[in-house]
Amino acid sequence: MPDSFPDHADPTTARRHAPSLPLGMPATRKLSAEDLGILVLSLIEEADSYGSQLSERIEQLSNGFYRPSPGTLYPALKSLSEHGLLCQQRQGRRKYYRITPPGRDWLALHRQAAERVSSRLQNAGRKLTALYASMSEALDDDALALPLAQEMLSARMDLKAALHESRHASPDAQRRVLRLLQDTAERIRAEADSG
């Protein structure tokens, strides 16, 4: 049984290579490859699945905040299978994934990480739902509200990531960032007040 995921999906090395926000969300993507691997393994432990079912379950878990693309999900499934944590069976044209005993053992050792990933996605989904509700009310058009809420949440996360990444900047750069934040907050308030 592997002690960890392969190089591209090891939760411990991931934190050394990719910047992340204080609560663990990756600074550059909605979910890191490592976190996706942990999440997929925990979801398959709950119920064997096809790849498309996993995408739907992740989207439901996050209230529409995140649905992994096939180009993200299937490499994770392949890697987990190659490392003996999942097995796959063909049913017609589709591959059906099941957790293996070594996969269960590995997941038992990393249960807290799996729970953190799930919790972060659920939290992001709650934020998206709240944004969507307020934008629906303001816009009176549900078709426009959801994409706008998704973009707004992504922009907020990008801003948090940029601020987190700037924390080691020089004092002069920190002052410029502070001025940008103050100016931006003032402009946002002015926009909101103008209706």
From TrEMBL:
<feature type="domain" description="Transcription regulator PadR N-terminal">
    <location>
        <begin position="40"/>
        <end position="107"/>
    </location>
</feature>
<dbReference type="InterPro" id="IPR011991">
    <property type="entry name" value="ArsR-like_HTH"/>
</dbReference>
<dbReference type="InterPro" id="IPR036388">
    <property type="entry name" value="WH-like_DNA-bd_sf"/>
</dbReference>
<dbReference type="InterPro" id="IPR005149">
    <property type="entry name" value="Tscrpt_reg_PadR_N"/>
</dbReference>
<dbReference type="Pfam" id="PF03551">
    <property type="entry name" value="PadR"/>
</dbReference>
<feature type="compositionally biased region" description="Basic and acidic residues">
    <location>
        <begin position="1"/>
        <end position="10"/>
    </location>
</feature>
<feature type="region of interest" description="Disordered">
    <location>
        <begin position="1"/>
        <end position="25"/>
    </location>
</feature>
<dbReference type="InterPro" id="IPR036390">
    <property type="entry name" value="WH_DNA-bd_sf"/>
</dbReference>
<dbReference type="GO" id="GO:0006355">
    <property type="term" value="P:regulation of DNA-templated transcription"/>
</dbReference>
<protein>
    <recommendedName>
        <fullName>Transcription regulator PadR N-terminal domain-containing protein</fullName>
    </recommendedName>
</protein>
